[in-house]
Design a protein that fits this description.
Layout (H helix, E strand, L loop, with lengths): L10 E7 L2 E7 L9 E2 L4 E6 L12 E7 L5 E7 L5 E9 L2 E8 L9 E6 L4 E8 L6 E7 L1
Parallel strand pairs: 3-5
Antiparallel strand pairs: 1-2, 2-8, 4-11, 5-10, 6-9, 6-11, 7-8, 7-10
Length: about 140
């Protein structure tokens, strides 16, 4: 499991319970794109070396998603440039509690997907590469 411990500008308390990852983090928000995504939207972006670096050497970008409690959401991350790794947190990118993560949801691809039922008003979606040093183009689809 990846830990949300950024090498720069972050303090984190990380612990795991069963198969879930939970982390409380304080981040420098200007380091992330921080865009608010909409349901039905496909966002095309690029994971850059200028995005915050995690403790494993990989880079991450973060996006916001406003939700309605009780509704089911699906977040899919696809890239041909890197092995997609997706994390979902409760709250804003600047102060988030990670609750779900996914590496490869299909056997034939390296894409990631998280399906969840919203319990909170706002979630953060972290785009990340599974391996350190990989960046590049990606799409993020919200259903």
């Amino acid at each position: 499991m990846k830990k949300l411990q950024l090498a720069m500008m972050m303090s984190a308390l990380v612990f795991s319970s069963n198969a879930s990852l939970f982390a409380q983090a304080t981040l420098e928000p200007s380091m992330y794109s921080g865009l608010t995504l909409q349901v039905g939207q496909v966002h095309s972006g690029e994971l850059l070396t200028s995005h915050p670096q995690m403790s494993d050497g990989s880079h991450a970008d973060c996006f916001q998603l406003d939700t309605e409690a009780g509704k089911e959401y699906s977040v899919t991350l696809r890239s041909t440039d890197f092995d997609s790794y997706l994390m979902l947190g409760i709250g804003s990118c600047a102060d988030v509690m990670l609750s779900l993560e996914n590496d490869d949801f299909e056997e034939e691809t390296l894409d990631a997907r998280i399906v969840f039922t919203a319990e909170h008003q706002q979630y953060s979606i972290f785009v990340n590469s599974y391996d350190a040093g990989f960046t590049g183009a990606f799409t993020l689809h919200i259903d």
